[in-house]
Amino acid sequence: MSGLTLKEIASQIQAEVLGDENFTIHRLASLLTAQNEDITFLSNSKYRSDLSLCKAGAIVLTREDAEFCPASINRLVVKNPYFAYAQIAKLLDTTPKPAEGINPTAVIAEDAVLGKNVSIGANAVIESGVQLGDDVVIGPGCFVGKYTKIGARTKLWANVSVYHEVEIGEDCLFQSSTVVGSDGFGYANHQGQWIKIPQLGRVIIGNRVEIGACTTIDRGALGDTIIEDGVIIDNLCQVAHNVKIGKNTAIAGCVTLAGSLTIGANCQIGGASVLNGHMEIADGVIVTGMGMVMRPIDKPGIYSSGIPLQTNKEWRKTAALVLNIDKMNKRIKALENQAKS
Q1: Among 26, 190, 241, 278, which one carries the catalytic annotation?
Q2: Which residue among 153, 204, 205, 235 has the highest number of C-beta atoms inside a 10 angstrom radius?
Q3: What is the distance between the alpha carbons of residues 160 and 145, in angstroms, rounded to a whole number?
Q4: Which class for 77: exposed (0-12), middle (13-18), buried (19 or more C-beta within 10 A)?
Q5: What is the reported pTM?
């Protein structure tokens, strides 16, 4: 790419330039790998000592950190360097679109409604009754089922499957091999045999939602599975039928959400956590990684579970103690009663 001057970048991120505002930047790099044509950032003051080793053409940092930076390096002073980094990454992003134009091998139903500037990749299938908004991009090998609606500027990377009657909002992003609207795990047991219950609900996804690769979102059994605006979900997550996720909640990789779970707004769920179904999680809850949430949480805060990694020898001792807690509790109560008498 041709690059951007520091003046152009500063105007986009509301930064003050200390140095040559006409200096041209071509790439974004980390603090210690950046070279002369790169821009980098310092968001944690404990790494100030690395500034003397930096070879970047420019650094984004706070005013407090700027005085520790060599005067020979151009500086962009901001209040929040990490947020500025995110903005610059968008300005310098070279990621290609999942598709450009409509590939002749795409299969598109005659009654599908396509907005302006829609792109559909090779071997994608767009079924009857589908509505695609302006600037929607459907990657190669995608499947979009009957009567599904996808809002403007939403992008689906390769091999995403969206089942029938799903509604997806605007400015969403779905990574490869995501599945939206698959059947929930609904069965009735009759005389030892599992009888499948048709899943008659839908999946409703708001605006600015991003879903990672190989994540599955099941449709509702009767009502709908609902993901509200601004939610981000990482790779390899399972969202079961009738789950509801509130606005701007973030869910890290390999999380499992059981059926009919309701998660509030602005929550953070750490990687590999498992949350039980048919309960509610309040707004503003943070569950740290590998959390096992078996009961409702009605107050915001940070919640954790599990035992940190130990050597096997230490773990065996811990396990033995845990298995004997009931006996120890009874002995302590007996001793307390003796002390009182």
Answers
A1: 241
A2: 205
A3: 11
A4: buried
A5: 0.92
* Cα first-last separation, the chain: 84
**Residue pLDDT tens, the chain, 341 long:** 579 999 999 999 999 999 999 999 999 999 999 999 999 999 999 999 999 999 999 999 999 999 999 999 999 999 999 999 999 999 999 999 999 999 999 999 999 999 999 999 999 999 999 999 999 999 999 999 999 999 999 999 999 999 999 999 999 999 999 999 999 999 999 999 999 999 999 999 999 999 999 999 999 999 999 999 999 999 999 999 999 999 999 999 999 999 999 999 999 999 999 999 999 999 999 999 999 999 999 999 999 998 889 999 999 999 999 999 999 999 999 999 999 87
Q: Which residues contact 303 (CB under 8 A, 6 or more apart)?
A: 285, 286, 287, 288, 291, 293, 297
Measured CA to CA, the distance from residue 172 to residue 158 in angstroms comes to: 15
Which strands make up the sheet holding 137-138, listed edge to edge?
119-120, 137-138, 155-156, 173-174, 210-211, 232-233, 250-251, 268-269, 285-287, 301-303
Report d(CA 325, CA 73) in Å as an integer.
61
Residue 101 CA to its chain's centroid (Å): 28
Q: Are 99 and 116 in contact (CB under 8 A)?
A: no
SS3 339: helix
**Of 287, 329, 292, nearest in space to 307 by CA:** 292
Tell me, yes or no, if 26 is annotated catalytic: no
What is the helix, strand, coil percentage profile of the chain, to 5?
20, 30, 55
Separation between Cα atoms, residue 168 and residue 170, nearest integer Å: 7
